[in-house]
Amino acid sequence: MASLNYKAPGPIVKAFMKDDSFFRGLRGPVGSGKSVSCCIEILRRALAQAPNADGIRKSRWAVIRNTNPQLKTTTIKTWLDWFPEEEWGRFMYSVPFTHNIKKGDVELEVIFLALDRPEDVKKLLSLELTGVWVNEAREIPKSIIDACTMRVGRYPSMRDGGPSWYGVICDTNAPDTEHWWPILAGETVLPDYLTKQEAKMLIKPDNWTFFNQPPGMTEIIGKDKHVDRYEKSEEAENVQNLTPNYYSNILRGKTKSWIDVYILNKLGLIEDGKPVYDSFRSDVHVASSDVLVAEKIPIYMGIDFGLTPACVFAQRVRGRWLILEELVAEDMGIVRFSDLMKQQMALYAPRTFNVFGDPAGDHRAQTDEATPFQILRSKGISARPAPSNDVLIRLESVNATLTRMTDGESGLLIDPKCINLIKGFAGGYHYKRIQTSGERYDEKPNKNRFSHVHDALQYLLLGAGEGRNLVLGGKTTKPFVAKRQFDVFTAKPKNIMDRRGGR
Question: How far apart are the C-alpha atoms of 197 and 190, rounded to whole Å?
């Protein structure tokens, strides 16, 4: 047997490798030794396999990556760094990529598959396996993980003694908060939009175990309660195999959201694109606790229509915009969505409401002869079109608040429960990369699940007066304030908990 000079790079990796759970997940920052530990774990389990009647320890593994380029340039490269062909046998570069290792009494077959190749997915669903390693699991849907669990434990066959251990191992950088990984790990709650059947699939089985590595660096919080700097983490794993300034060098020029995910191992969203608002800073623009609702101050609302409607609630207090709440729905028309809006408005009563929506809402709805604005008014919500639908003007209305300082504080402060809005600011709302050489992006923000709530915020701010000088050709104007009082609060909706005092 060829020799390997490997030592677990830290206590979390060591615990991960010693655990015998059917499913094991290892999450950590970049450079923490996750992928290497999974490579070694495959061999370790092969060595621990009980020999068959002929004295041979047989194992077969599949290694899964999201795309073929990632599989070849990252996963396979790491594997061959530790198991080079000259020592461990010929690597087959024809599809499916396969490494057959025969050393001593060990026969280990490792098959590498990419999910962007239909033939590879078909192959995965037919394999008889001992185990599966899913590399960078945040890129992999839960359905594939479930498919993997059905293919393991099948090799060697029971006629040949069966597997001594079988299961699925995964590694990943920190995923999004709504990803299946943190939900199953108990780090986040189930999203409200999931169906009952989808929710059942995200209940953690008893034989699933998740491991979390320490961050690569530590945040130092300044007197203003914002991140002042980053320092070396004494608990970081695998630092003995990294250059002394590895983390301090790679964080330079990176956004806070990037640092949070790749260095601090915090749940977050990183999209392949250019963030629309490069002046956004979560430590500046997101409140550390609930934003208090000011008494006797009007509530501003912005609405984006369609079958993925969104609404944002805000107040302007002493020149600052306080973003209080977001409503985001899937596959819902304006009739049902307006009922949700009314329920939320009731929680803020009695206050004046200034409501602005997508100017396109003056057109007839697809499922109704009335326009969305007419439907809202029939529900007792007096809403007006925002003064413009020009994308550049709308974006400027938001940028003006992000970059403005009022009495030493940012011009925009978001309540931390506005998850979709915050994720959008952090990069979910972005310009899509154009697939050409160089750094080129679309001229308009990408339409995705974050764009609707951001459109709503833009309509709110533009309707309230932000950026309206651009609309009026340089003329300044005061924000429009609806004079009509609404009577939708004569009877408050049942079973609605008042989560804020003084509403």
Answer: 12
